[in-house]
Amino acid sequence: MPVPDAVKRRAEELRREIERHNYNYYVLDSPTISDARFDSLMRELESLERRYPELVSPDSPTMRVGGAPREGFVTVPHLAPMLSLGNAFDEEDLRDFDRRVRQGTGGAGVEYVAELKIDGLAVSLVYEDGLLARAATRGDGDSGEDITPNMRTVRAVPLKLREPVRLLEVRGEVYMPKDAFARLNQAREESGEPLFANPRNAAAGSLRQLDPAVTASRQLSIFVYAVGAVEGAEFKTHHSVLEYLKDQGFRVNPHYRLFNDIEGVTEYCREWQHTRFDLPYATDGVVVKVNDLGQQALLGATMKSPRWAIAYKYPPEQARTVIRDIILRVGRTGVLTPTAVLRPVRLAGTTVTKATLHNEDIIRERDIRIGDTVLVHKAGDVIPEVLEVIKEERKGSEQPFSMPAECPECRSEVVRPEGEAAVRCVNPRCPARFREGLIHFVSRNAMDIAGLGPAVIGQLVSAGLVKDAADLYGLKKEDLIPLERMGEKSARNLLEALEKSKQNPLNRVIYALGIRHVGERAAKLLADRFRDMESIMNAGFEDLVGVQEIGPRIAESVIEYFSGPANRDLVRRLAQKGLKMRVEEDGAREGPRPLEGKTVVLTGALKKYTRQEAQELVERLGGRVSSGVSRKTDLVVAGEDPGSKYEKALKLGVRVIGEEEFLGLAGEG
Ligand code: IVH
Question: Which of 71, 198, 635, 667 could pair covalently with 626 via S-S, beta carbons 3.0-4.6 A apart?
Fold first, then answer.
């Protein structure tokens, strides 16, 4: 069906507008329209693209998350190497650096640009003719892992440049904002998954996901700070590179500054040592770069790092305080988390009064007692933790802590299952568990109901207005208005948010139920495989463990959850309220999927496609690309000069096709 001109124009207009709002929201952090209006623009574009698939192009804002999970990561070379930096730990080190720089540049004046050092991980983005073609991790500096589909989900990454140039390699730091890090770790603690030690690990873990949908759920962002290979643009200074990157639509950290000597830089480092804690992302230092690119070239690099830049590292923030008490918090899965009540102490920008102790084993290993003087820090500048006990300060009056035999909220018995570190309240009616379960249900990555914070939930529960999650959807304005700090407007917003949440896909509903061990990933796998809630509820152990990546622990937990009539009833009531209980097939956008479920290996050079394009094509046809040939491979696509993979395929009897036949499959021959 030819696309009418009017439709083309409307699609173009929608894309431009969506891109502009994306930019305002994710790059500038200052949205100019409501979420609802934005969603409606997206829906309109999606529906046009569904009706006219010819409209879809890889740079469309609808194409950020897509494609099937991959089997592994492919290594790709960087066009220009990604170096690391030498470190400075005090002002003396900075002055030494300055002395070396001035010597190396022949004594002329040297300008420096100082930038905040973001605590994340370095990535490289390659734009070809203005379009994002590839994204890779730093790897060993010469080549890294191809994470293109994952980086496309990061909304602050432009899919196309504003002023296309032949080639632009951009370097930046992907990071997880502090609040997202805290939320992610809390969710992990509650579902018994291992915690991320800091936002850097969390960002790395989120990027190295074979399923880009998981990356998309992790709220990553990026600041870019350098270019690698460039064709079609020229620069004289680092400062102008940063300005250029901003003009091209990239997110550049706004706090960079130009100085004409090192004294200005040391002052900048001093200024940010404490104010950096007010930022919504973690920083661990300042990066200092020689501004003039001619001088940079003159200075050159050692094997590992450039001589024209240095990373000034702030000392880790730690503080001494006293543990006044150890209290217990009951989570939604019944886990009792011991928390240290501290003598208030200033640490990384806030006054800290509590620190999580995670579980009783940690308390025992570190021999933490009530009354102890301890050293505390903040994981990722956000989560206070006890690092160690200062034993020399012990007076003998300190009290060892032991877990109680009963739940502090409902007084029923607690258990510690074999092989687990956590002690749990197993009373399904424990009021604390119920409250926490609701908090999880409405949380951002679950049903995402804005305006329903813990305080409102606490009030709704104590007022008897909400006895299970389904009751939330029966709330009326009259129920809400009498609540503390709830005005006419917030009540209306809350009802709107509840209504909107009914559009959430099945995987979010599954995740929201709060089944033990079923995190976002497992919820997605279950939804993808079983397609509707009914089938998951009735699945047996073998059905569940038959799903790749679903192990016996998750399977047992799902079965146990649905074995209780109360949980089945909850699901039934949620369905009645209009929540989505099946995966909505979006068949129209996709063409035929002849490679559905097939594992494909690419080898040799194709004439019509780059490796990347071929991989995307396979994914669009429903298949997955794997890097090695094995008995599990369904198909090998062999281009010119195929190598050992081709021979192995022949040996194993795997079907091999050439480029022509591949094009035929794709309907492009
Ligand atoms: S410039 C050759 N600028 O810190 C110059 N790096 O210790 C390469 N980082 O690998 C890096 N913020 O992962 C630069 N504003 C910034 C940075 C930054 C964070 C990271 C980056 C790099 C590491 C060096």
Answer: 71
User: How many whole angstroms separate alpha carbon 104 and alpha carbon 151?
Assistant: 38
CA of 309: how far to CAs of 97, 118, 173, 303, 312, in Å?
9, 15, 16, 14, 10
Instruction: List active site positions.
Output: 117
Give me the CATH topology for the region 5-64: Helix Hairpins (1.10.287)
What is the spatial distance between Cα 503 and Cα 40, in angstroms, rounded to a whole number? Answer: 13
Pocket probe for ligand 1: among 78, 169, 225, the residue whose CB has the most ligand atoms within 8 Å is 225
Ligand 1 site-directed mutation target among 287, 293, 299, 303, most atoms within 8 Å of CB = 287
Please write the tens of the pLDDT for every residue from 268-278: 999 999 999 99
Query: Which atom of ligand 1 is nearest the CA belonging to 115?
Result: 15
Ligand 1 atom index nearest CA of 121: 13
pLDDT tens across 103-148, in order?
Answer: 999 877 899 999 999 999 999 999 999 999 999 999 999 999 999 9
**pTM for the predicted model, two decimal places:** 0.73
Domain 431-501 CATH class label: mainly alpha
Which atom of ligand 1 is found nearest the CA of 306? 2
Each residue of 391-436: pLDDT tens digit? 999 999 999 999 999 999 999 999 988 877 889 998 988 989 999 9
Q: Assess whether the C-beta atom of 310 lies below 6 angstroms from ligand 1.
A: no
Q: Residues spanned by CATH 1.10.150.20 within the chain?
A: 431-501
Single-letter amino acid, residue 202: A
